[in-house]
Design goal:
The N and C termini lie close together (9 Å). This protein is of the alpha+beta class and 137 residues long. A four-stranded antiparallel beta sheet has the order 2-3-1-4. It has a single domain, classed as Nucleoside diphosphate kinase-like domain (Alpha-Beta Plaits, 2-Layer Sandwich), CATH 3.30.70.141. Bound molecules: adenosine-5'-triphosphate (ATP). Adenosine-5'-triphosphate binds next to β4. Its EC number is 2.7.4.6.
Length: 137
Protein backbone atom coordinates (compact mmCIF):
# COMPACT_ATOMS: atom_id res chain seq x y z
CA UNK A 1 0.00 0.00 0.00
CA UNK A 2 1.00 3.61 -0.52
CA UNK A 3 2.84 5.66 2.11
CA UNK A 4 2.69 9.43 2.68
CA UNK A 5 4.58 11.76 5.01
CA UNK A 6 2.39 14.07 7.05
CA UNK A 7 3.37 16.93 9.35
CA UNK A 8 1.14 18.69 11.84
CA UNK A 9 2.90 22.05 11.70
CA UNK A 10 3.75 24.21 14.76
CA UNK A 11 0.44 26.10 14.51
CA UNK A 12 -1.51 22.84 14.77
CA UNK A 13 0.46 21.67 17.82
CA UNK A 14 0.34 25.11 19.50
CA UNK A 15 -3.42 25.40 18.96
CA UNK A 16 -4.12 21.98 20.46
CA UNK A 17 -5.40 20.48 17.21
CA UNK A 18 -3.26 17.32 17.21
CA UNK A 19 -6.06 15.10 18.49
CA UNK A 20 -8.61 16.57 16.10
CA UNK A 21 -6.33 16.08 13.10
CA UNK A 22 -5.34 12.53 14.07
CA UNK A 23 -9.02 11.68 14.59
CA UNK A 24 -9.80 12.81 11.04
CA UNK A 25 -6.89 10.73 9.68
CA UNK A 26 -8.15 7.64 11.52
CA UNK A 27 -11.77 8.19 10.49
CA UNK A 28 -10.70 8.40 6.86
CA UNK A 29 -9.27 4.90 7.25
CA UNK A 30 -5.61 5.77 6.88
CA UNK A 31 -3.23 3.74 9.04
CA UNK A 32 -0.73 5.54 11.27
CA UNK A 33 2.45 3.54 10.61
CA UNK A 34 4.88 5.90 12.40
CA UNK A 35 4.35 8.95 14.64
CA UNK A 36 6.54 11.32 16.66
CA UNK A 37 6.73 14.81 18.16
CA UNK A 38 9.86 16.58 16.94
CA UNK A 39 11.69 19.87 17.40
CA UNK A 40 12.69 20.76 13.84
CA UNK A 41 16.25 21.92 13.17
CA UNK A 42 16.89 24.55 10.51
CA UNK A 43 18.85 21.89 8.55
CA UNK A 44 15.89 19.50 8.41
CA UNK A 45 13.47 22.34 7.56
CA UNK A 46 15.63 23.53 4.65
CA UNK A 47 16.01 20.00 3.24
CA UNK A 48 12.29 19.28 3.61
CA UNK A 49 11.29 22.50 1.82
CA UNK A 50 14.24 22.53 -0.66
CA UNK A 51 11.90 22.88 -3.65
CA UNK A 52 10.73 26.26 -2.30
CA UNK A 53 14.25 27.70 -1.76
CA UNK A 54 13.81 30.42 -4.39
CA UNK A 55 10.29 31.45 -3.33
CA UNK A 56 9.79 34.83 -1.61
CA UNK A 57 8.16 33.18 1.42
CA UNK A 58 10.99 30.66 1.97
CA UNK A 59 12.67 32.52 4.88
CA UNK A 60 9.43 32.99 6.74
CA UNK A 61 8.37 29.39 6.02
CA UNK A 62 11.61 28.06 7.57
CA UNK A 63 11.22 30.40 10.55
CA UNK A 64 7.63 29.19 11.03
CA UNK A 65 8.33 25.47 10.71
CA UNK A 66 11.18 25.70 13.27
CA UNK A 67 9.17 27.86 15.69
CA UNK A 68 7.89 24.95 17.79
CA UNK A 69 7.44 21.20 17.79
CA UNK A 70 5.72 19.43 14.90
CA UNK A 71 4.09 16.03 14.77
CA UNK A 72 5.53 13.89 11.96
CA UNK A 73 3.78 10.75 10.76
CA UNK A 74 3.87 8.14 8.04
CA UNK A 75 0.39 7.17 6.89
CA UNK A 76 -0.35 4.06 4.88
CA UNK A 77 -3.31 3.01 2.81
CA UNK A 78 -4.82 2.72 -0.63
CA UNK A 79 -4.12 6.05 -2.43
CA UNK A 80 -2.83 7.47 0.88
CA UNK A 81 -1.17 10.49 -0.77
CA UNK A 82 -4.32 11.76 -2.47
CA UNK A 83 -6.53 10.70 0.43
CA UNK A 84 -4.62 12.81 2.94
CA UNK A 85 -4.50 15.80 0.57
CA UNK A 86 -8.27 15.49 0.21
CA UNK A 87 -8.91 15.66 3.96
CA UNK A 88 -6.28 18.43 4.35
CA UNK A 89 -7.87 20.69 1.72
CA UNK A 90 -6.12 23.11 -0.65
CA UNK A 91 -3.03 25.12 0.29
CA UNK A 92 -4.89 28.42 0.73
CA UNK A 93 -7.27 27.65 3.60
CA UNK A 94 -9.86 30.22 2.51
CA UNK A 95 -9.69 30.38 -1.30
CA UNK A 96 -8.95 26.69 -1.96
CA UNK A 97 -9.71 24.47 1.04
CA UNK A 98 -13.38 23.60 1.33
CA UNK A 99 -15.36 23.46 4.58
CA UNK A 100 -15.13 19.95 5.98
CA UNK A 101 -11.40 19.75 5.28
CA UNK A 102 -8.79 20.31 8.01
CA UNK A 103 -7.58 23.60 6.52
CA UNK A 104 -11.08 24.68 5.47
CA UNK A 105 -12.40 24.19 8.99
CA UNK A 106 -9.48 25.45 11.09
CA UNK A 107 -7.11 27.77 9.18
CA UNK A 108 -7.13 31.37 7.92
CA UNK A 109 -3.73 32.05 6.35
CA UNK A 110 -1.76 30.17 3.68
CA UNK A 111 1.42 30.00 5.74
CA UNK A 112 -0.37 28.81 8.87
CA UNK A 113 -2.27 26.00 7.17
CA UNK A 114 -1.78 23.39 9.91
CA UNK A 115 -0.62 20.36 7.94
CA UNK A 116 1.72 19.12 5.26
CA UNK A 117 1.23 16.03 3.12
CA UNK A 118 3.49 14.61 0.40
CA UNK A 119 2.29 15.43 -3.12
CA UNK A 120 3.63 12.42 -5.09
CA UNK A 121 5.19 8.98 -4.53
CA UNK A 122 8.63 10.50 -5.23
CA UNK A 123 8.08 13.27 -2.64
CA UNK A 124 6.75 10.74 -0.13
CA UNK A 125 9.89 8.59 -0.44
CA UNK A 126 12.17 11.63 -0.21
CA UNK A 127 10.32 13.07 2.80
CA UNK A 128 10.01 9.76 4.70
CA UNK A 129 13.79 9.37 4.27
CA UNK A 130 14.20 12.77 5.98
CA UNK A 131 11.84 12.27 8.92
CA UNK A 132 11.92 8.45 9.38
CA UNK A 133 15.15 7.12 7.83
CA UNK A 134 14.83 3.54 6.65
CA UNK A 135 11.03 3.46 6.93
CA UNK A 136 10.08 4.01 3.27
CA UNK A 137 9.19 1.00 1.17
P1 LIG B 1 2.56 21.40 1.96
O1 LIG B 1 3.73 21.20 1.00
O2 LIG B 1 2.95 22.00 3.29
O3 LIG B 1 1.62 20.23 2.06
P2 LIG B 1 1.14 22.52 -0.14
O4 LIG B 1 1.71 21.43 -0.98
O5 LIG B 1 -0.33 22.65 -0.03
O6 LIG B 1 1.65 22.50 1.32
P3 LIG B 1 3.14 24.30 -1.23
O7 LIG B 1 2.84 25.13 -2.40
O8 LIG B 1 4.03 23.09 -1.38
O9 LIG B 1 1.75 23.92 -0.56
O10 LIG B 1 3.74 25.26 -0.11
C1 LIG B 1 4.38 24.72 1.01
C2 LIG B 1 3.98 25.50 2.22
O11 LIG B 1 4.53 26.82 2.14
C3 LIG B 1 2.48 25.73 2.39
O12 LIG B 1 1.83 24.66 3.00
C4 LIG B 1 2.44 26.99 3.23
O13 LIG B 1 2.68 26.70 4.62
C5 LIG B 1 3.64 27.77 2.69
N1 LIG B 1 3.24 28.69 1.64
C6 LIG B 1 2.88 28.38 0.37
N2 LIG B 1 2.55 29.46 -0.33
C7 LIG B 1 2.72 30.51 0.51
C8 LIG B 1 2.54 31.92 0.41
N3 LIG B 1 2.16 32.48 -0.74
N4 LIG B 1 2.80 32.66 1.49
C9 LIG B 1 3.21 32.11 2.66
N5 LIG B 1 3.40 30.80 2.82
C10 LIG B 1 3.16 30.01 1.79
Amino acid sequence: TEQTLVLIKPDGVARGLVGEIITRIERKGLKIAALKLVNVSEEVAVVHYAEHAERPFFGSLIEFITSGPVVAAVLEGERAIAAFRQIAGGTDPVEKAVPGSIRGDYALETQFNLVHGSDSPESAKREIDIWFPGFAH
